[in-house]
Amino acid sequence: MYQRLISISCIMVLMIVFIPTTARSESWVLWQKKEFQKIDLTSNIYWEILDAYPDYKQCMQTMKRIWQVEKTQALEDKKKFDTISEIKDVPYNLLIRKFKEPKEYHSIWEHFYCLPGTLDPREKK
User: Fold this and answer.
1) Which parts of the chain register pLDDT below 50?
2) H or E stretch including 37?
3) Residue 52's Cα: distance from chain center in Å?
4) What is the pLDDT of residue 123?
5) Is 119 helix (H, G, I), strand (E, B) or coil?
6) Three-class DSSP category at 74
7) Residue 125: per-residue pLDDT
8) Is residue 62 within 8 Å of 80, Cβ to Cβ?
9) If you compute the radius of gyration of the chain from its CA atoms, what whole number of angstroms results?
10) How many CA atoms lie within 13 A of 93 on its CB side?
11) Nearest-angstrom CA–CA distance, 70 and 66
């Protein structure tokens, strides 16, 4: 009886330790980081959680779609408002808008990341 109690206790401890870790690692979070670079090259950085997914593949698919929508919008804004001098990109990860006559901001950088649910990329305060 004593051995059975020890065995059950060991199994319960293992479950407590490993099951939450496994469950959390199966979650993927889509993050967007917007960096507003001022004329003096200082910047304001904002992080936003866009959504969460049970697997990495779903997160990446959504990230690609959102990135494409943002790029299309930037190209339309460039034609419509004529304030954007240049658009640079790294497919599905980064989109940079540089402005012709910067008033407040020299450029806006948008980064997209799919990260494990246990990871928070924001700077600790």
Assistant:
1) 1-24
2) strand 28-38
3) 10
4) 87
5) coil
6) helix
7) 73
8) no
9) 22
10) 2
11) 6
